[in-house]
Amino acid sequence: MDRIAGIINLDHEQDLLDELTYFRCGAAVPFAGRYRMIDFAVSNMANSRIESVAVFARRKYRSLMDHLEQGKAWDLDRKRGGMFILPPDWNDPTDISKGDLQHFHNNLDFLHRAWADYILVSGSQNICNIDFQEVLKEHKEVDADVTVVYNRVDELYPEYQLAHKLEIDQNSRVTGIHNDHSSINVYMDMYLVKKDLMIELIEQCIAHGGSHFFLDGIKAKLAELHIHAYEYEGTHALVNSVESYYRNSCKLLEADQHDGLFGNEAPIFTKVKNEAPSKYLPSSEVTNTLVANGCVIEGQVEDSILFRGVKIGEGAIIKNSIIMQRCEIEPNAVLENVILDKDCKISAGRTLIGAPEKPFVVPKRKSM
Fold it and tell me: Where is the Nucleotidyl transferase domain positioned along the sequence (predicted)?
């Protein structure tokens, strides 16, 4: 059986979620009540029987390392293979690589030692539930050099402007990679390539002064390589701004969107934290809300997402808001279209109101 090793490349992902990425990289941002954004990439790999996963991180990765630990939550704490968090700690004076090619070059040992025939590279900003074994199957059927994953979107939201788009012929062969805002073929920052070919392309890119492996090693060789496009048809969200984070989080309150990510046979895993069940006091009124464990609710909550350990005081009103771990909202406070980062405290009687297209964001550990 052909084996795959995984790389989660965070090097080129910009931390554009404003207050939510002041203290962490985007991959470590909490999502959907109990997860982090990177959980989807790692879970997709683990569910696809990928037993070696490397994470390329350059900055603000302390929170990420604390969350991933040794990969136990994803069954990646193994004697052979496992999870490797590879921050930039390089001391090779002869290294001439730049950009994310520094990660690929300085961690070639991971590629050489990986017990795998293929390498699957993914980012963390595309939230989905995908089986990479199906990608491999199609890759082999068409005898491709590289297979890239894309989603044909129904509506062009602003976040897609930052994503690459694909031009595809009738045989699903990629003929162009660009940033045309009108294109609906959104590249999901995932590609599969044979390990030997990847190592060869890395060396070529560095020798020619490249700085971005996908752009300089794959996009630049469209005429030379057989680059196949695999269409992912499941639930997909691209999160690269506060607005896209808020909108895609709120979509999870719709049953079809939630079930598209969490309702199939491939579960999304995360770091386990044992807490008591949430407690709903007689004065509480909760409708259409995702509630994680450990919450204590006395007030009114509607169309919102509550992470672990949130406390809502009596008479408080929470609407269309995302309240992260261990936040405390005191009695008679009013929050609407608000995102509270972890460990925030909102004083009694305080009112915070944002707009659906521009939510009010309170940074981590802030008291108001």
Answer: 20-154
List b or e across 143-160, with b for residues whose CB sees 16 or more CB atoms inside 10 angstroms: ebbbbbbbbebeeebebb
Residue 12 has a pLDDT of 86
Whole-model pTM?
Answer: 0.96
| Nearest of 160, 175, 164 to residue 228 by alpha carbon | 175
Q: What is the DSSP string of 144-203?
A: -SEEEEEEE-SS--GGGGGS-EEEE-TTSBEEEEE--TT--EEEEEEEEEEHHHHHHHHH
Two tokens, residue 184? 């609906």
| Comma-separated ranges of CATH 2.160.10.10 domains in the chain | 279-362
The class that CATH gives domain 4-262 is: alpha beta
Q: Which residues contact 249 (CB under 8 A, 6 or more apart)?
A: 31, 32, 305, 322
pLDDT, tens digit (0-9, with 9 covering 90-100), for 260-306: 999 878 999 999 888 899 999 999 999 999 999 999 999 999 999 99
Q: Which CATH superfamily is domain 279-362 in?
A: Hexapeptide repeat proteins (2.160.10.10)
The span from the CA of 311 to the CA of 364, in Å, is 16
The pLDDT tens digits for 256-266 are 999 999 987 89
